[in-house]
Write a structure and sequence with these properties.
single chain, 315 residues, Rossmann fold, 9 helices, 30% helix, 23% strand, globular
Length: 315
């Protein structure tokens, strides 16, 4: 669909977007008025979410926060609804051996990187309670869930894509908005992923090293300099990943896959012997059939230490 056609379709969907907006406001009002129950918990809950659909960089923020609070001596747990996973009933404790097809790729990535207990449940409140009861955590971080108002929260963090911002500014299904931009005035922190914007905390994803999937061996960022490599990305904004490889002077043959794509070995069975480099979110879905050519780019979130200290003070 070209841009002109997409624009026309979006305008035709505006009446439905208006209905979505009204219903979302009514729903929020019912929670605030006490018509719908908000579940409260014995430990602090931090929600890392956004007001748009699509990837804005929430999961790297969650990983950064988990690692920060672990360094403070806290036992941190993470909850997720497990988008893209087959698990549908009850709570699932995600282990590093869990299949991404069951848990969803993002919960498995968080569990693999942080070793924190990660609980998946379509009803987030039940996932929080399961973590408290089973793992005696001191703190829970919710990956997404800003609009899951049945889950009580201590701190709200909204993540904004620094490049795309709010798209055309329309509500679903005519645009990407799940809530009004005014919602950002109500959260405790707004993190801008990838750019600087007044009143928002700037965060940047920084490449750290390449990891050979089979051996776990780390390689410096210049390891693939001027080499032809297959770049594989099944994430929200794959060009951000490919651009990062190109800035490292990798000669990238780009392979685009849908966000949360369920890889099979045949998808990466390229005829030549070029190395295959993927994102961390792709790696957890490919490790079961990884071969010697496969690597992933490990990244870290560069964010102001002052923000982390201010966040800790709110708990």
């Amino acid at each position: 669909m070209d841009l002109n056609t997409r624009g026309i379709v979006n305008y035709l969907l505006l009446p439905m977007a208006g209905v979505f907006y009204v219903l979302s406001k009514i729903r929020l009002s019912f929670y605030r008025l006490g018509v719908f129950k908000i579940n409260q918990f014995s430990v602090p809950v931090i929600v890392v979410g956004n007001i748009t659909v699509g990837g804005s960089g929430k999961t790297p923020v969650v990983i950064k926060l988990v690692e920060y609070f672990q360094q403070q001596g806290k036992k941190v747990g993470v909850v997720s609804r497990g988008y893209g996973g087959a698990h549908t009933t009850g709570s699932l404790l995600v282990k590093t051996s869990t299949q991404a097809a069951l848990s969803g790729d993002e919960p498995l990535l968080i569990a693999s990187v942080t070793r924190a207990p990660v609980m998946v449940n379509k009803i987030r409140s039940k996932a929080v309670q399961a973590l408290i009861e089973q793992k005696q955590v001191d703190l829970v971080i919710s990956d997404d869930g800003l609009q899951h108002y049945a889950m009580g929260r201590t701190v709200e963090i909204a993540v904004v894509d620094g490049n795309r911002r709010f798209g055309n500014g329309f509500f679903l299904p005519a645009g990407p908005l799940r809530e009004s931009q005014n919602r950002l005035k109500e959260v405790d922190f707004v993190i801008n992923n990838g750019a600087a914007f007044a009143g928002e905390i700037c965060a940047q994803l920084k490449p750290v090293k390449f990891i050979h999937i089979l051996s776990g061996q780390a390689f410096a960022l210049d390891f693939f300099k001027d080499k032809s490599c297959h770049g594989v990305a099944g994430i929200g904004h794959p060009d951000r990943f490919f651009d990062a490889l190109e800035r490292l002077n990798v000669q990238v043959v780009k392979h685009y896959f849908a966000d949360h794509y369920a890889y099979q070995a045949k998808d990466l069975a390229f005829e030549d012997a070029h190395p295959i480099i993927m994102s961390a979110k792709d790696w957890v879905k490919c490790k079961q059939f990884a071969n010697d050519k496969m690597y992933y780019l490990k990244v870290d979130l560069d964010i102001n230490e002052t923000f982390l200290n201010e966040l800790a003070e709110k708990l």
